[in-house]
Amino acid sequence: MDSQNIMFIVLAVVITLSSVLTVVTRSIMRAATYLFFTLLGTAGLYFLMGYTFLGAVQVMVYAGGIIVLYVFAILLTRGTKDSLSENTKSKIILSAVLSLVGFGLAAYLIFIQQFKAEVLAAPNESVLTMQQIGTNMLSTDQGGYLLPFEAVSVLLLACIVAGLMIARKR
Amino acid sequence: MIQIEYFLIVAAVMMFAGIFGFLTRRSTLAILLSIELMLNATDINFAVFNRLMYPAGHEGYFFSLFSIAISAAESAIAIAIMINIYRQMKDISIDKLQKLKW
Amino acid sequence: MDYQYTLLILLLPFLSFLVLGLFGKWMSHKVAGIIGTVSIGVVACLAFYTAYAYFGAGRDADGTFATELPYNFTWLPFYIGNLHFDMGIMLDPITVMMLIVITTVSLMVHIYSFGYMHGERGFQRYYAFLSLFTMSMLGLVVATNIFQMYMFWELVGVCSYLLIGFYYTTAPAVSASKKAFIVTRFADLGFLVGILIYGFYTGTFSFDFTVSGSVREFAGASFILPTALFLMFIGGAGKSAMFPLHIWLPDAMEGPTPVSALIHAATMVVAGVFQVARLFPLWITYAPETLHVVAWIGAFTAFYAAAVACAQSDIKRVLAFSTISQIAFMMVALGVCIPGEHAIIDNHGSLGYMASMYHLFTHAMFKATLFLCAGCIIHAVHSNEMSMMGGMRKYMPVTNITFLIATLAISGIPPFSGFFSKDEILAASFQYSPLMGWVMTGIAAMTAFYMFRVYYGIFWGTENKEYHEEIKAHGHLGEAPLVMTLPLILLTIITIFVGWTLPGTFGSYVSATGQAYVIHLDPKIAITSVVIAVASILLATWIYARSSQPVAERMKAAFPRLHEWAYRRFYIDEIYQFITHRIIFAYISRPLAWFDRHIVDGALNGLASGANGIGERIRPLQSGRVQQYAYVFFLGAVVLFFIMII
């Protein structure tokens, strides 16, 4: 049992617990907090795989940006009183059954599928360097992502404009 | 010895927790949180498949990256809409937002 | 020689219709009337110029006037076979003659209407409809093919409907307009079916029968062509008020009197005669026996209408029945034509063709005069009933003289135009069979009798002094203004001179073969008809001219049933009423209506309510609740997932 395995178990437990808690907790503020933990755990998984840049982006954009945005929105809309108990029992049970059956099927599929995959080796800093990422992002060669990059930048611009348009006071 | 299945199970838990939340939550903001959970689960899968099955390629990696960017955009717009709705109707419960229903 | 300007003859009245119809609301009566009248005036000038140019251009080598086609383009081609609908303008002798008739009468009516319709509500609308009618009628006569003719034929029917129903606030006018439209439309069904049969078998709609192969020989031609022609004749019989489709014309007198003069005396009602004349080469070549059937229908109609006219008291009704009778004369004239050697038309056998067209021409003039005179009288006494008139000669000298001359013309007294044309018809009838000749001579005598009856009833006879005093007390009883009498005088001049100053000339322009035909009066027939006509006039004078009429009263008392029957038009309208209401409506329409309402509608309603019910059932599925949709979506995804694993 090396440190990598320990790290993975800790992360898996954190992610599993907090994702379930995100959807069952009564207070929406707590839900946001549990989601924050889930996202951080996901970032930890990325680090574990050696995808340090992806992990950093996850922490910055998701955990740092989006969650803060949600917290503000929750506070602005007094939406803190959301609770599961106001739903009908049958709805919760049906949804739970559906989710559990879906999860069971997915798990079954995962385990019967003989993945020809490697096991995760020791953390390796040189999986994908910053330089490689930059080059790939801005190249048009094979494995280059200039077009989606530009498309995302346009999308973000549109997003800024739309966010302003929708949310501004009239 | 961390196998790919372990990662996938963690992602599946996250995914179905998101689905459950989507189906049961009443506040639209909580529903958005569930959507974030589902998106995150898929991101993990992209990265894991890339890392453990095709370490030479970078497609899953970049897919995750773009997915994060797009979900950030989506959240921003969705929250803007929610705030606007709240201004108009003082309530963002999903079962109250039925004004445009037939 | 090109006749490009003839397009203006159609376009100007149409333009005038558009202007008056669209912008008439904002015009004063005077401006609207002047626009309409001036455009018709220009068209009349163009028509006269066309006639001058056409007949002045000289004859071809075979002695006929060339048929001119200034415009002809394919409007609707069928890509199967050679069949196509054309639109265009065709000029041949009868077209040119009709152009003159229509534009002359139309111009006179336009001028006359200034006085007659003075101050009426809808004055602009009236002129707009007159323009539209003139355009349609001109389009009908210049048609290059049967289909174009049919289109304009329907258009004149619409105009007739609109103008009969001009006083649409009065119930009789509304029902008369509907009656006219429905009866003629019903007859036009025959026309349409005839056209389709003809087009289907011959592969052409064109009036150009001379081109070799335009009417190709085909199996069964000896049966199909007469059938098609007779069906077309049914349409013509509807428009030209042949028995038993005549019932709409007397009621059409509910329209303004100038309209009756233009549409229901001079132009539209002769469309049926014109149609038969237009298709004359086909009739005479392929269906001479059927043509004689037409002649007998015409003869019966002429007799029937003359008999009814003898008993009517409404002066416009008398004129209407006289119109029916005279149009029937034209039909008879066409019908008695017999093919020459080898089924080829010759001017001798087809004398009736010329006679018919000649009578059409003269009749249009003198009948328009009669109607316009009647309009003047009605304008003065505000009634159509003869009992309200009598002794009008004192008050309306000009109307008296013009009415008398027109009456003499229709009675066939020389030297007025009616004598010449009627004499040709009688000659043609005698040539066909002596029986037909004597029948027609008898009807001509009846014509003289009833026309003088109505003349004496209006201008002489018993004066309704009380009523006339009442009118005088409220205003004025006297001659109509100049704008109304001027057209009367002009038309009367035409009536006087068109016969004897141009003897033989009409035949040299219009004849069956197109070659010049010199009209020569048969002295035997001429003298007989004149003597009989004079005798009838004297009889009418003896009975009706005096201020008390003991003979008429005694005759009425002696034959009460005959008088009643004739007055009621031999109950033809009642028979129609009985057939349509008691038989067709009760035993055919009502079960059909029941079937329609309960079975057809029921099935559709059942479908609709079924769909509605199903919709109500499945509507909750479209709940608008996002989570429910999502649940179904995920459920579907899981099920698919499950299926794929298995």
Major pleated sheet of chain B: none
- Structure annotation, total helices of chain C: 25
Alpha-carbon distance between the two ends of chain C: 91 Å
Question: What is the count of structural domains of chain B?
Answer: 1
Q: Let me know the number of strands of chain C.
A: 2
Overall average pLDDT of chain B: 87
> How is the largest sheet of chain C built, in terms of strand order?
1-2
Described by its quaternary structure, the protein is heterotrimer
Which bin fits the share of residues in helices of chain C? over 70%
H/E element sequence of chain B: HHH
Structural description of this entry:
The complex is a heterotrimer of chains A (170), B (102) and C (646). With 170 residues, chain A is mainly alpha-helical. In chain A, 72% of the residues lie in helices and 0% in strands. In chain A, helix 1 (3-24) runs antiparallel to helix 2 and helix 2 (28-49) runs antiparallel to helix 3 (52-76). Chain B is an all-alpha fold and 102 residues long. Chain B has a single domain (5-89), classed as Helix Hairpins. Chain B contains three helices and no strands. Chain B has helices at 4-24, 28-53, 59-89. Chain C has 25 helices and two strands. Chain C is mainly α. The model of chain C has no long low-confidence stretch (mean pLDDT 83). Chain C has a two-stranded antiparallel ribbon. Classes of the chains: A mainly alpha (170), B mainly alpha (102), C mainly alpha (646). Chains in contact: A-B, A-C, B-C. The interface between A and B is large, with 79 and 66 residues.
